[in-house]
Amino acid sequence: MPETYFEVRWPDGHEETCYSPSSVVADFFEPETAYTLTDFLARSESALTLASERVKQKFGYYCSSAADQLQRIQATAARFSGQGNVTVLRIHS
């Protein structure tokens, strides 16, 4: 369950590195692919929830870092009022 990072570009051009405790995010995102804000949010929620579940299965507790990352994604996305695309630039460990 390697830690994985996914780099994104928000609609305003700002780039951010996001954290996942599991490589499962690679099942939800393709590098160099743009997603609508709504789709990106849904995929992020699914990916990070599943990643946290995997931590719970292995260690007996949910990953608070995955929850924190999802909250940061949701807060940033709220600034764009559901408009624009988020591009996943790359995924790496």
Write a structural description.
By secondary structure, this protein is α+β, with helices and mostly antiparallel strands. It has one domain (4-92). Helix content is 41%, strand content 26%. The protein has helices at 37-59, 64-78, and strands at residues 4-9, 15-20, 33-36, 85-92. It has a 4-stranded antiparallel β-sheet with strand order 2-1-4-3. Strand 1 (4-9) and strand 2 (15-20) form a beta hairpin. Helix 1 runs antiparallel to helix 2. The longest helix is centred in the middle third of the chain and has 23 residues, at 37-59. The protein starts with a strand and ends with a strand.
Order of helices and strands: EEEHHE
Q: Evaluate the radius of gyration.
A: 13 Å
**Assembly classification:** single chain
Give the count of structural domains.
1
pLDDT < 50 runs, ≥5 residues:
none
Number of helices: 2
Major sheet summary line: 4 strands, antiparallel
The share of residues in helices is: 40-55%
Termini distance?
10 Å
Beta-strand portion reads 25-35%
Which structural class is indicated by helix and strand composition? alpha+beta
The residue-averaged pLDDT reads 95
Number of strand segments: 4
The dominant shape is globular
Strand order within the widest sheet? 2-1-4-3
